[in-house]
Structures are given as structure tokens and as C-alpha cells.
TrEMBL record, chain A:
<feature type="transmembrane region" description="Helical">
    <location>
        <begin position="121"/>
        <end position="139"/>
    </location>
</feature>
<keyword id="KW-0812">Transmembrane</keyword>
<feature type="transmembrane region" description="Helical">
    <location>
        <begin position="86"/>
        <end position="109"/>
    </location>
</feature>
<feature type="domain" description="ABC transmembrane type-1">
    <location>
        <begin position="79"/>
        <end position="259"/>
    </location>
</feature>
<keyword id="KW-0813">Transport</keyword>
<dbReference type="Pfam" id="PF00528">
    <property type="entry name" value="BPD_transp_1"/>
</dbReference>
<keyword id="KW-1003">Cell membrane</keyword>
<comment type="similarity">
    <text>Belongs to the binding-protein-dependent transport system permease family.</text>
</comment>
<dbReference type="GO" id="GO:0042918">
    <property type="term" value="P:alkanesulfonate transmembrane transport"/>
</dbReference>
From TrEMBL, chain B:
<feature type="compositionally biased region" description="Polar residues">
    <location>
        <begin position="12"/>
        <end position="26"/>
    </location>
</feature>
<feature type="domain" description="ABC transporter">
    <location>
        <begin position="38"/>
        <end position="252"/>
    </location>
</feature>
<dbReference type="GO" id="GO:0005524">
    <property type="term" value="F:ATP binding"/>
</dbReference>
<dbReference type="InterPro" id="IPR050166">
    <property type="entry name" value="ABC_transporter_ATP-bind"/>
</dbReference>
<dbReference type="InterPro" id="IPR003593">
    <property type="entry name" value="AAA+_ATPase"/>
</dbReference>
<keyword id="KW-0813">Transport</keyword>
<dbReference type="InterPro" id="IPR003439">
    <property type="entry name" value="ABC_transporter-like_ATP-bd"/>
</dbReference>
<dbReference type="GO" id="GO:0016887">
    <property type="term" value="F:ATP hydrolysis activity"/>
</dbReference>
<keyword id="KW-1278">Translocase</keyword>
Length: 276, 268
């Protein structure tokens, strides 16, 4: 789930370097073949009773259940609740992570104040904090949002901080020679220079955010995707569980490609270099 | 130009007597001797044990084109960085009057800003973008104003960097081997361009280079930095554009090369 630290640019270049396939559909089909075979085998196993439904529902059953859940409004409702948790938690965590990185990155005093603290907190296992969070925040929305937020803070903080500190010192000299004011230097040199690394942090933090949400929703939820899944477990509804998992996966993929899109737009100065 | 005067006056500055000669330059080409833009006295800079600059004295007059030669590692960039105000660790008297612009050895374009924005960065002008565009057109890059720096060729990037320095209309232009990465053809074009722009904007120029011909073809005065001091000075009062096969330049070339520690056999 959590996004690996991969330089997207490099991966793009690798893709572009491949010779163009004359019939792209043929290539796509080749890649789809093995998953399709698995699904078909899975369906056969289910239909013949080899794979009992209390262990895993059949693909067909899962599809019909998904349609049902959507039509009855159960799934949309759960999605709204979960998305809200993710959005609030992510926003709070991102603001804190980037804000703290700016404080630590832009001044020595800030670094000495903020960095040791965050390095210490980073060592704590995120999910190990759940019992404390329950004691502190009860079992309502707060501990769930807090867990997501906390998971988001660290990747964004670490990457943005490293990004700021990694900005080429020669450009700092340039700013000095051009007589840029400090604010202008931060706006034109430091922040854009840190952006590529911040976006890496963004992808990592989104990965952690979904993971934190899934775990948080296992505890005492009375609404949302996690609740839907837990509820289904009690009634051995593996079909509903799988639908929930697929929805989680889709959201993970969606936000990841959203960040890629953002990367492509924000780092177009780099892309133009790579593709030329 | 007065033909009676020697066109090239050369003096080694290691002895006090010849040093005093250069204190009163015999430049007859300018009506009044302008005030110095740069005055450096007894500048020293040490890195650890190494004394890279060991009492440099230097004056650059308003509108004067000075070339600074020196072997690699002789401290040319160190001196230029002091003049640019980038080195707080140097000791000695340094006075720089007026505004300063720098073109570094590598173009140092900000990669995430398009060329026009790079040239306009930090520019105090009524219309920075218009001024930047005009400067880009001057260096022949008008069409590339919307390009990303990483897509430019070495020569184009250097010209953009030059435009960024020139657009500030500085009183002093510091150029740190800005042409060394260019191919011979581009270099000729850029030399012409620099002389042209110098003629029009008239800043004092300190051109750091290790190319003797470049120094002779462009500058009013050629200095050699050696063992931490300005060890040699040659005044070149030839009209521009100069030809490298000019009799006086051939003589000057071998003088300068000797000063730089290169011995030429078979040349006169
Ligand atoms: N920041 C620095 N720290 C230590 N040594 C330096 C530093 N800057 C320059 N030097 C040394 O000073 C000498 C002169 O360097 P530099 O001025 O760059 O030479 P040049 O530009 O003439 O080739 C070199 O030996 C270099 O290693
Ligand atoms: Mg140098």
C-alpha cells in the first residue's frame, strides 16, 4: 500500500525508451491474460464447491453484491464516511507535516526545536498508539482522524525538510547576487527546489493515510467502509468484505495517480528534459 | 588614437618601481579618467593552510574592460567571489562602487523557471518581463524565452546567463570563465556580443579566463594572477575588433604565456 520511493521521472524514461509496439492492444491483452485466467479458475473453484463461500465468495457473487450495495446506497454512504475521515486526517497531517518542515528547514532555531522532537516521535510505532488514542479521544471520529493525521505527518515532514535542505547552494549564491529578498528567495528558489522531494513525501503519506484509515476503521466504527467490512465478517459475508477491500484499493490507486498527475504538471521543467 | 604611444604597455608588477608606473595609466583614449569602480588593497584569502590570495591590489575604472588570467587553481574565482560579495572570509580592503552583476562559470539558471523568468528574476524595473525579453533578444535568444533551462544547449544557457547579468545594467560586470564551455564558433559569436553590449551599456567588466587569446582580443587591460598576487599587467590599446594575428598581439601572447609558465619553442 505504501508508495515506494521511486523517481517517477526515471521510470517514465524507461517506459519511453521501449520500442513502440505496433499493436498496443495486443500487448495490453497479453498483460491481462494471467489475471483473467486466475479469475476464471477462481470462478470455477467456487462453482464446483472447491472454494466455499464462507472462505471466499465467487467473482460473480462479488459483482452482484457490489451492484446491490451501490443500489441500496449502503456502499456510497460508507464511502462518504470513510472519505471524510481520510480527507480531514490527511489535511490536518499534511498541514502539520509541511508546516513543521518549513519551520525546521528555513531556520537553524526551527531545526533545533522541531527536528529532534519529530525524530523521536517518528520512532514510535503508529499503530501501537491506538490504545492511547482510544484512552485520549474515546471511540468516536477523533482517534480515527488523529491516526490518519499522524501517519501523514512524518513522510511529508521528512521529505519536505530534506528537500529544503537539499536545494543547491549555488542557487542560494545566485539569489544573493541577484539581491533577492529572503521572502523572494524562499518563494522562487527554496520551495520550488524542495517540491520534487515533497511530492515523493506526498505519495508516501497517502499510502500511509489509507493504511491508517483501514486500521483505524477496524476499531469500534459504527459507519464507513471498515464498519461495513466488520459487520460483514459477523455474517460470514466474504462478498461484502471483498467489495470493501476493492474500494480501498481503488481509492489508493486513484490518489496515487492524482499525485502522479500533479507531479507531471508541477515538475514539467524536469519532464521536458527527460523526454527530449 | 595617438600613434606615437606604444599600443601595448607591459609591466611586471613584482618590483615596486614598475608597480608605480601602472598607478598612472597612460590611457589617452578616454577624455577624463573615470573614478574607479573597484579598489582592492592587500586582499588575502586563506583556506586552511593555503594562502590562495596573498595581498592582491586591483583597480577597475568605470567602463573599463579588464581580463584576469591565471592558471587553474590560482585563485581567480576566489577573487571574483570576493568582489561579488560572496566571500565573507577574505581579509583586506575591498571597495566596490555601484551595482554588481555576475555571470558564473556554469550558467546557474534556475531549472524550474523558464528562460524569461530566469532573466527577470529579482529585476527591479518598471516592466521586468519586457526588459528581460529585450535582453534576451540582445543575446539572440528572443525565441527561446519560453523554454526550460534544461532544454538549452551549453551556449544558449551561457547567453541566457549573460542576459540575466546584463539586464540589471550593472556598473560592474563580473564574468567567471563564462565562455570556457562553449565551442569555438559559439565563442566567437559571444565575444562579439559581449563587446557589442559593453559598447552600448558601458559597464566595467572583469572577465576571468584562462584563455590568453580571449583576454587579448577583448580587454583594455590584461592581468595575470600568480602565487596570490597580480603578477603582471598588460595594457592593450588596439582598436576592436582585433585580429589574433596582429603583430603586437603575437608578441603579447608569448609574453603572457611565459608569465603563465608556458614556454613556447619556435615562436618569436
Ligand atoms: N571554499 C574553499 N575551500 C577550500 N579551498 C578552496 C575553496 N575555494 C577555493 N579553494 C582553493 O583555492 C584555490 C583557488 O581556487 P579558485 O579561485 O577556484 O581557482 P581558479 O578559479 O583560479 O581556478 C584552489 O586550490 C581551490 O582548491
Ligand atoms: Mg575558477
Amino acid at each position: 500500500m505504501s508508495a515506494p520511493v521511486v523517481d517517477v521521472g526515471v521510470r517514465r524514461r524507461a517506459v519511453r525508451a521501449q520500442p513502440r509496439v505496433p499493436r498496443p492492444f495486443a500487448a495490453a491483452w497479453k498483460r491481462l491474460l494471467s489475471p483473467l485466467v486466475i479469475v476464471v479458475l477462481w470462478q470455477i473453484a467456487s462453482s464446483t464447491g472447491l472454494l466455499p463461500e464462507r472462505l471466499l465468495a465467487s467473482p460473480v457473487k462479488i459483482v452482484t453484491t457490489a451492484t446491490d450495495l451501490i443500489q441500496t446506497g449502503v456502499l456510497p454512504e460508507a464511502i462518504v464516511v470513510s472519505l471524510q475521515r481520510a480527507a480531514i486526517g490527511f489535511t490536518l497531517g499534511a498541514l502539520a507535516g509541511i508546516g513543521l518542515a518549513l519551520i525546521a528547514g528555513l531556520s537553524r532555531v526551527g531545526e533545533n526545536t522541531v527536528d529532534p522532537l519529530l525524530q523521536m516521535l517518528r520512532a514510535l510505532p503508529l499503530f501501537g498508539l491506538i490504545p492511547l488514542f482510544i484512552l485520549w479521544f474515546g471511540i468516536g471520529e477523533t482517534p480515527k482522524v488523529a491516526l490518519v493525521a499522524l501517519g501523514v505527518v512524518f513522510p511529508l515532514y521528512l521529505n519536505t525538510f530534506a528537500g529544503i535542505r537539499g536545494v543547491d547552494g549555488k542557487l542560494g549564491e545566485l539569489a544573493q547576487v541577484l539581491r533577492l529578498r529572503r521572502s523572494a528567495m524562499i518563494a522562487h528558489i527554496v520551495l520550488p527546489g524542495a517540491l520534487p522531494q515533497t511530492l515523493v513525501g506526498l505519495r508516501q503519506s497517502l499510502g500511509v493515510a489509507w493504511l491508517a484509515l483501514i486500521v483505524a476503521e477496524q476499531i469500534n466504527a459504527d459507519a464507513g467502509l471498515g464498519y461495513m467490512i466488520n459487520d460483514a465478517r459477523e455474517f460470514l459475508r466474504t462478498d461484502v468484505i471483498v467489495v470493501g477491500l476493492i474500494v480501498y484499493a481503488i481509492f489508493g490507486l486513484l490518489t496515487d495517480s492524482l499525485v502522479r498527475l500533479l507531479e507531471r504538471r508541477a515538475l514539467s521543467w524536469r519532464q521536458s528534459f527527460l523526454s527530449s | 588614437m595617438a600613434t606615437e604611444l606604444p599600443v601595448i604597455v607591459t609591466s611586471d608588477l613584482e618590483t615596486a618601481t614598475s608597480g608605480s608606473e601602472t598607478a598612472t595609466p597612460r590611457d589617452s583614449s578616454r577624455a577624463a579618467i573615470p573614478e574607479p569602480t573597484v579598489r582592492v588593497n592587500g586582499l588575502t584569502r586563506t583556506f586552511g593552510e593555503r594562502r590562495v590570495l596573498d595581498g592582491v591590489d586591483l583597480e577597475i575604472r568605470r567602463g573599463e574592460f579588464v581580463a584576469l588570467l591565471g592558471r587553474s587553481g590560482s585563485g581567480k574565482s576566489t577573487l571574483l567571489r570576493v568582489l561579488a560579495g560572496l566571500d565573507p572570509g577574505a581579509k583586506g580592503e575591498v571597495e566596490v562602487e555601484g551595482t554588481v552583476a555576475v555571470a558564473f562559470q556554469e550558467p546557474r539558471l534556475v531549472p524550474w523557471k523558464r528562460i524569461l523568468a530566469n532573466v527577470a528574476l529579482g529585476l527591479q524595473a518598471p516592466d521586468p518581463r519586457a526588459a528581460a525579453l529585450a535582453a534576451l533578444e540582445e543575446v539572440g535568444l528572443g525565441e527561446l524565452h519560453g523554454a526550460w533551462p534544461l532544454t538549452l544547449s551549453g551556449g544558449e544557457a551561457q547567453r541566457a546567463s549573460l542576459a540575466r547579468a546584463l539586464v540589471r545594467e550593472p556598473d560592474l560586470l563580473l564574468l567567471d570563465e563564462p565562455f570556457s564551455a562553449l565551442d569555438a564558433l559559439t565563442r566567437i559569436t559571444i565575444h562579439r556580443l559581449v563587446l557589442d553590449l559593453w559598447g552600448r551599456h558601458g559597464p566595467g567588466i572583469l572577465l576571468v579566463t584562462h584563455d590568453v587569446d580571449e583576454a587579448m582580443l577583448l580587454a583594455d587591460r590584461v592581468l595575470v594572477l600568480d602565487r596570490g598576487v597580480i603578477a603582471h599587467e598588460s595594457r592593450v590599446d588596439l582598436p576592436r575588433p582585433r585580429h589574433r594575428d596582429h603583430r603586437d598581439l603575437i608578441a603579447l601572447r608569448s609574453t603572457l604565456l611565459t608569465r603563465l609558465g608556458v614556454t613556447l619553442e619556435g615562436t618569436t
